[in-house]
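About this split. The held-out portion is used to measure sequence recovery: a designer receives only the structure tokens and must propose an amino acid at every position. Recovery is the fraction of positions where the proposal matches the reference. Here is one held-out target exactly as it appears in the evaluation file.
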């Protein structure tokens, strides 16, 4: 089940919210937990037992670690907890990838392949694994105290708004909210507005752009592709993935707000960045900060020799790429971004300062757009072929007036992606997302939200095209 589906919007969410708002305070966490179990079981009924069992075991391992007085025992239990969670992620997400590469090597040397049955990937395993790691590591570091009830811990891991696609909610940022939070009518309304904005981004923008991106970039071969069409395809995907993922994050943040939770922001207008370093402070923020605090800093952070620092940066982004998917194109994508982060630290940041804001923005936008080619096309040979078509300079005239819907949505996507370049852009964004509302603002946002909801329901009822890029991660 995904948020942008009629089953969720017409049945699950209304029923859940009615029950949640009616039950007494002491039953609210139980209501969320039961709703989350139903939500996850809808798409992965088999994996719900694995998820709950591993979470139950991890809760008790961390509890034993917290109570232990011996540092060695605490460290051993932490390692065991990490191995449990990373081991499950490695098996379910990377076992097929490992065996495929082993068999490719065996085929190359003339040996018989390893017999293997493909392992199915549990929905959202990359996201909730990182959340379990923050719990055990934060408790070990003394940043937070462990939860008293195992049901509260399972709730933290399985809370349906952020279960399958984030944002990655670190335990220390939400621990107090799990056991003691307050909801107000403002929270419910602001959450509803945020949810509708995210739904509009996903259904009305990302889905339209995604259809065009799939049409162009989903070809089995690009031999007949011209440069104009190739650039249209990658630009469509560039804005599709942003509005798809940021829209889903908005919906998650909005749903959490309706229940009194404050989830962290996950996107901050990444396409206005003037360097790849800045891009990664604005794109998938919760993943970037997780990698920084739980991997980059423990590796030494900035307090190491330059060579080791650059190696750590590249390693972190290689792992970040692999986190996104078990395929060599994701590894290449991570190394690609890691390369630009390293050269920006070495010398490029000084050049970017000299060429000015416009030149720096052009550089960053082009680099990020080109990076999406290897993110979207898993076959590296086809990806290289697509790059060739982008720079073949065989541009042809295309009558885009034949596709008014796509063209208008692409223009809208570009406008909102670069909205903060406008003098009043940040003020309006802050007013919508972060300010206390007056009555007339509530009335305006309520009207806008209802229009968006109506348009989204109409779109979903007339088309079966409703992909979600990060669903498989």
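Reference sequence for scoring:
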């Amino acid at each position: 089940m995904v948020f942008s589906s009629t089953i969720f919007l017409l049945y699950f969410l209304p029923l859940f919210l009615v029950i949640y708002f009616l039950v007494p305070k002491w039953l609210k966490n139980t209501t969320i937990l039961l709703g989350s179990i139903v939500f996850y079981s809808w798409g992965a009924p088999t994996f719900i037992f694995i998820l709950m069992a591993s979470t139950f075991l991890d809760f008790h391992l961390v509890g034993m670690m917290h109570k232990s007085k011996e540092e060695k025992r605490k460290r051993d239990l932490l390692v065991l907890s990490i191995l449990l969670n990373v081991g499950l992620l490695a098996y379910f997400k990377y076992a097929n990838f490992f065996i495929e590469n082993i068999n490719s090597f065996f085929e190359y040397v003339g040996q018989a392949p390893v017999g293997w049955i493909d392992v199915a990937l549990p929905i959202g395993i990359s996201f909730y694994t990182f959340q379990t790691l923050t719990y055990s590591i934060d408790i070990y570091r003394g940043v937070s105290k462990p939860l008293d009830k195992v049901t509260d811990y399972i709730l933290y891991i399985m809370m349906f708004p952020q279960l399958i696609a984030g944002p990655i909610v670190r335990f220390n940022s939400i621990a107090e909210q799990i056991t003691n939070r307050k909801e107000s009518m403002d929270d419910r309304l602001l959450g509803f507005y945020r949810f509708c904005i995210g739904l509009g981004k996903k259904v009305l923008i990302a889905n339209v752009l995604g259809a065009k991106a799939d049409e162009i970039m989903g070809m089995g071969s690009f031999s007949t592709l011209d440069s104009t069409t190739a650039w249209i395809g990658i630009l469509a995907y560039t804005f599709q993935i942003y509005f798809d993922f940021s829209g889903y994050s908005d919906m998650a943040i909005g749903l959490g707000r309706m229940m009194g939770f404050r989830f962290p922001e996950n996107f901050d207008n990444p396409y206005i960045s003037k360097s790849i370093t800045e891009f990664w402070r604005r794109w998938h923020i919760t993943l970037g900060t997780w990698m920084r605090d739980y991997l980059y800093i423990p590796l030494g952070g900035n307090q190491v020799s330059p060579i080791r620092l650059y190696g750590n940066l590249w390693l972190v982004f290689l792992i970040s790429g692999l986190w996104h998917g078990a395929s060599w194109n994701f590894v290449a994508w991570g190394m690609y971004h890691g390369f630009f982060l390293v050269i920006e630290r070495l010398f490029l940041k000084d050049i970017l300062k000299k060429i000015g804001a416009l030149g720096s923005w052009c550089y960053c936008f082009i680099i990020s757009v080109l990076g999406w080619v290897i993110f979207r096309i898993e076959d590296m040979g086809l990806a290289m072929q697509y790059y060739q078509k982008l720079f073949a300079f065989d541009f042809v005239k295309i009558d885009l007036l034949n596709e008014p819907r796509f063209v208008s949505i692409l223009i809208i996507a570009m406008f909102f992606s670069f909205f903060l370049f406008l003098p009043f852009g940040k003020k309006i964004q802050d007013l919508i997302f972060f300010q206390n509302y007056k009555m007339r603002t509530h009335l305006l946002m309520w009207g806008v939200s209802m229009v968006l909801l109506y348009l989204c329901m109409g779109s979903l009822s007339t088309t079966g095209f409703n992909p979600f890029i990060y669903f498989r991660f």
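Annotator remark: The chain has two domains: 6-180, 187-472.
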